[in-house]
From TrEMBL:
Organism: Vreelandella janggokensis
Protein name as it appears in the record: Amino acid ABC transporter permease
Pfam name, any one: BPD_transp_1
InterPro entries, per the entry: AA_ABC_transptr_permease_3TM (IPR010065), ArtM/GltK/GlnP/TcyL/YhdX-like (IPR043429), MetI-like (IPR000515), MetI-like_sf (IPR035906)
Membrane topology label: Multi-pass membrane protein
């Protein structure tokens, strides 16, 4: 028996107005979480290169735990597990931002560590010989160069985090996938709607990739 399914392009187009409200949630969760995760990553990344073992180990544990467990498990723990400990519910949007923050922070900490350690030791020694303190040497010599080298991997992490928001429909966050699920429930056009969801995610990540490529072409990142 021949399959009777026929793709309905009209249903794909008609889903756009119903999916658009999910874009602000997707962007808020991803970029809000990344902004917090960036500062978390700097903190733990610098701890990772500390000469003091008692400072390095908490950072190592944090990185291994959040890089070694799925972000879906992390957001479920935050949304369902933490309220049992805190005695009060957590907003789904807040849980999503928190999950992106702690997850991306673990990866960003490794980006920070690698970026700082990629700067030649001679530059630090030269700045110290010129009379700069260790703090001034890091702030004015090491960090600006390291940050330029961090931008490409930070951009990649941003794209990953944007795509990770698609998992948060399980806690009811109204991002793109959740909006698609709601619309599909009344129209039964899963193939058509999920195609448009994929196109919207691609548009967001592609735009970010173009911005990063422009920065690279202008010599603002890398070496």
């Amino acid at each position: 028996m021949e399959p009777s399914f026929e793709f309905n392009w009209e249903a794909t187009i008609n889903s756009i107005p119903h999916l658009l409200p999910g874009i602000p949630y997707t962007l808020l969760i991803s970029f809000g979480g990344l902004a917090i995760g960036f500062f978390i990553g700097i903190f733990f990344g610098l701890l990772r290169i500390s000469p003091l073992r008692w400072l390095r180990w908490p950072a190592i544990v944090y990185v291994e735990v959040f890089r070694g467990t799925p972000i879906l498990v992390q957001v479920l723990f935050i949304f369902y597990g933490l309220p049992q400990l805190l005695g009060s519910p957590i907003n789904a949007l807040v849980a999503g931002i928190a999950a992106i923050a702690v997850n991306s922070g673990a990866y960003i900490s490794e980006i920070v560590r690698g970026g700082v350690q990629s700067i030649e030791r001679g530059q630090r020694e030269a700045s110290l010989s010129l009379g700069l303190s260790r703090t001034q040497s890091f702030r004015y010599v090491i960090w600006p160069q390291a940050f330029r080298r961090m931008i490409p991997p930070l951009g990649n992490q941003s794209i990953i985090s944007i795509k990770d928001t698609s998992l948060f429909s399980v806690i009811g966050v109204g991002e793109l996938v959740r909006q698609g699920q709601v619309y599909i429930a009344s129209t039964f056009t899963a193939m058509e709607v999920y195609l448009m969801v994929a196109i919207m995610y691609l548009a967001i990540t592609w735009t970010l990739s173009i911005i990063l490529r422009q920065l690279e072409n202008k010599g603002l990142v890398g070496q």
